[in-house]
UniProtKB/TrEMBL annotation:
C2 domain: residues covered: 1-109
CDD domains documented for this protein: ChiA1_BD (cd12214)
Protein name per the record: C2 domain-containing protein
Keywords tagged on the record: Hydrolase
Organism of provenance: Linnemannia schmuckeri
Length: 360
């Protein structure tokens, strides 16, 4: 079987639950279809069902040549003496018909008011012919329609709103021209004013929401910045404390290694050392018959030899000098070796601070 030109067949059965756009009497609905809403001449329409109100019936079939168009556009209108009014509209994706069994879809599709609210349904049977990739399995038996997919095409909605505004303007002009329709013109003017007021209120509400969102964002930004600064301060304080602890562990300043008990014990030991030295000297003096000259002479010679050895170390400095482990100093006639690095203080003499100095 030769493949012909791709086409789409549309059968409009009817509609239900439509909104009533007629001010006086019942509305006279008809529906029109197109695959290109930008071309007014491309639309095909049903007959007008007079006084059908919210439930018109048409049962008419139309055919459209397809050239890759993705959607079928639907517009349900109310016939007026001036400009026809828009009842509802929708865009139906053709792809769902192509992939249906037998490329046939009998469905109920939602339609929408120009403002975008759901306003009823339309009952259609759609069949695709000679479309590449279409479902060739047998079509489902005719029965109750199923729910189909429809949506609002934003550009199509702009066209529909323009038609609605033209209809309102035409009604207002006709009412103003005819004195007998003055009441109707007043009602229409109020309707336009109310619509404009609603649109203005919606715009203001959107602006207030945007301003509130901006304010919330700024508040969160300030809170985050304050938390970041607090965190940095805490980090800085923690680093300072760690630095002080490390200095104490390495003996810089020496305070963390200085033991007051050792200080007290050192003072006691120093006093004992001096007392023992004095007792030894007195005993030696008595042993030599009280001759101070021999004792002095002997001590003098001994001290002379000791002084020569002590010249190898410098005299201990109590005024903030830094000593490293292994440094040697002279203090109170003896030599001492530094045990751990520190800066000297007046009350950390080698004879007292045993954690810092050891007699050589």
């Amino acid at each position: 079987m030769m493949q012909g030109q791709p086409t789409l067949t549309v059968t409009a059965h009817g509609a239900q639950n439509l909104q009533d756009v007629e001010t006086i009497g019942k509305q006279d609905p008809y529906v029109r279809f197109s695959t290109d809403f930008t071309n007014p001449k491309a639309f095909q329409k049903t007959f007008v069902h007079k006084d059908a109100g919210k439930t018109p019936t048409w049962n008419q079939t139309f055919s459209f040549v397809l050239a890759g168009e993705p959607e079928l556009f639907v517009e349900i209108m109310d016939e007026e003496t001036t400009a026809d009014a828009v009842i509802a509209f929708a865009a139906i994706p053709i792809n769902q018909i192509v992939h249906a069994p037998g490329a046939t879809f009998h469905g109920i599709f939602d339609v929408y008011s120009p403002s975008g609210k759901t306003q009823g349904e339309i009952n259609l049977t759609l069949v695709a012919h000679n479309v590449p990739g279409q479902n060739t399995s047998p079509a489902q038996p005719a029965g109750q329609p199923v729910k189909g997919t429809s949506h609002i095409n934003v550009e199509h909605q702009k066209r529909v709103k323009s038609l609605a505004n033209k209809e309102k303007a035409a009604d207002a002009g006709s009412a103003a021209f005819g004195g007998l329709l003055a009441v109707g013109a007043g009602l229409l003017a109020n309707k336009l004013a109310n619509d404009n007021k609603k649109e203005e209120e919606a715009k203001k509400e959107a602006e207030r929401a945007a301003a509130a969102e901006r304010e919330r964002f700024e508040n969160e930004k300030h809170q985050f910045e304050a938390q970041r600064q607090q965190f940095e301060q805490q980090q800085h304080q923690s680093q300072q404390q760690q630095h002080i602890q490390v200095q104490g562990q390495h003996g810089y300043g020496g305070q963390s290694h200085f033991n007051p008990q050792e200080h007290h014990q050192g003072g006691h030991d120093e006093g004992k050392h001096k007392k023992d030295k004095k007792d030894k000297k007195e005993k030696k003096s008595k042993h030599h018959g009280g001759s101070g000259s021999d004792s002095d002479s002997s001590d003098s010679g001994s001290d002379s030899d000791s002084d020569k050895k002590k010249k190898k170390g410098k005299k201990w400095d109590a005024h903030g000098r830094h000593y490293s482990p292994g440094d040697k100093v002279k203090y109170d006639g003896d030599k001492y070796v530094c045990l751990q690095g520190h800066n000297s203080q007046s009350d950390w003499a080698p004879t007292v601070a045993h954690s810092l100095w050891r007699r050589d």
